[in-house]
Amino acid sequence: MSAKTPQHPNPPPLVRVSGTHREMGRQIGEATRKQVHHGIENSRQLLESAYQQLELTWDGAQIQARKYIPFAQERYPQYVEELAGIAEGANVAFDDLAVVNAMEAVTVDALHLTRCTSIAVNDERTSDGHILMAHNEDWVPEDEDDVFIVHASPKEEPPFMAMTYGGLLPNIGFNAYGIAQMCDTVYPNDSRIGTPRVVVSRAVLACKVPDEAIRTMLSAQRAAGYNHVLAHESGELYSVEVSARKFGILYGEDGYVVHTNHFISQAMLSVEDGPEELIASRIRYFRALRLVKREERHTIKTLQAIQRDHVNHSNSICNHAMHGDDPLDREKTINAMVIDLTARQMHIAWGNPCENPYHTYHLDA
After folding, report:
1. Helix (H) or strand (E) holding 213
2. Minimal CA–CA distance to 131: which of 142, 119, 117?
3. pLDDT surpassing 80 at residue 251
4. Residue 336 contacts residue 347 (beta carbons within 8 Å)
5. 225, 197 in Cβ contact below 8 A?
6. What domains does the chain contain, in order, with CATH numbers?
7. Phi/psi at 338 (nearest 5 deg)?
8. Pairing mode, if any, of strands 172-175 and 237-242?
């Protein structure tokens, strides 16, 4: 689309880890030391560039992040262990990683950045009867180089494969029990100090059935929530919109689910913060919905075509809004993935999918 669009002809790095959560974290940190350091530095620079709007220093962000960790420690100590392992393996301060993983919370969602698009279609809507999901991950362009894939074999949880970047816990992916999750940031006005949403969504990758996954998304004392597009190998599809105190569940009764960054369920509209700032999200949602409904039977290729769509450019499904002046309004698609849950495969384009090839990864379990 543009000569300035970053090119990634090679696949993103694959990191294989196994063992206890602390051991897996250390292995991730050791293998991605450069990415973790870079991710922390990017977060520092983002806060610095947005100081006028946020009035938040890095030291202040660390103080804020420390308020959230005890809730995560109480509810999900295994993932705090994972985070501590990443810090050890990458040789960074745990407090710095805590800020990265609680960034949306410590900035009180003032970073109206994320413009992700998620789609799921079940066996009734695919040409080969497979369950397919698609997700465009939109974030600040500086973090694009830090994308990698985790293939994990935890000691006491199901094997999983997920995409992540920098020092973030992995949360967008699928597991060997046939549970898959895509996360879209939403903007509720009832956020509170509690378990960071990244930690909650990491826990979903350990779930074995949809009921368990949804109960995990609604974890007690959560700080806020994502929209979780949830798929099960049976073809059950859900979009679970979550805030700190409320939730709404949309069911894929027609064989598909589409979601972007605004609330859709009636239950959640009353807690949406700044809906007028989310017009581009609504445009992407309707555009993706139209493209999904237009095909009688989807394939990996038809979903990849949707991921490359440029209607409403630069705030399109394939997002190129990376050259704005406002530091809180600069982002782009840093990767686009299609998960074939039936085949336990992930097809991922590193960077904008309009200019970068897809690469295939398999979950060995």
Report:
1. helix 210-217
2. 119
3. yes
4. no
5. yes
6. 14-362 (3.60.60.10)
7. -120, 125
8. unpaired
Which residue, 160, 84, 196, 166, is CA-closest to 363? 160
Could you tell me the end-to-end alpha-carbon distance of the chain, in angstroms, rounded to an integer? Answer: 38
- CA separation for the pair 149, 251 (Å, rounded): 29
Q: What CA–CA distance (Å, rounded) separates 309 from 354?
A: 8
ω into 127 cis (within 30 of 0): no
Give me 333's structure tokens.
């698609």
Q: Distance between CA atoms of 243 and 187, rounded to whole angstroms?
A: 8
Distance, CA of 292 to CA of 85 (rounded, Å): 41
Residues forming beta bridges with residue 172, ordered by sequence position? 163
Burial class (CB in 10 A: 0-12, 13-18, 19+), 11: middle
d(CA 356, CA 235): 30
Contact 199, 76 (CB under 8 A): yes
pLDDT digits (tens, 9 = 90+) for 62-105: 999 999 999 999 999 999 999 999 999 999 999 999 999 999 88
C-alpha dihedral over 348, 351, 355, 356, to 10 degrees? -40
Cβ partners under 8 Å of residue 250, min gap 6: 238, 239, 240, 241, 257, 259, 264, 265
pTM for the whole thing? 0.96
Q: Which SS3 state, helix, strand or coil, does residue 147 take? A: strand
CB count within 10 Å of CB 27 equals: 20
Least confident of 48-57, 106-115, 150-159, 228-237: 106-115
| Two tokens, residue 52 | 């006028």
Distance (Å, whole) CA 132 – CA 307: 13
Q: Which residues pair with 118 in a beta bridge?
A: 135, 259
Cβ burial 229-266 (10 Å sphere, 16+ → b, else e): bbbbbebbbbbbbbbbebbbbbebeebbbbbbbbbbee
Asked whether residue 1 carries a pLDDT value surpassing 60, the answer given is no
Q: Scan for tokens 């239950």, then name that residue.
A: 267
pLDDT of residue 105: 86
DSSP SS3 for 215: helix
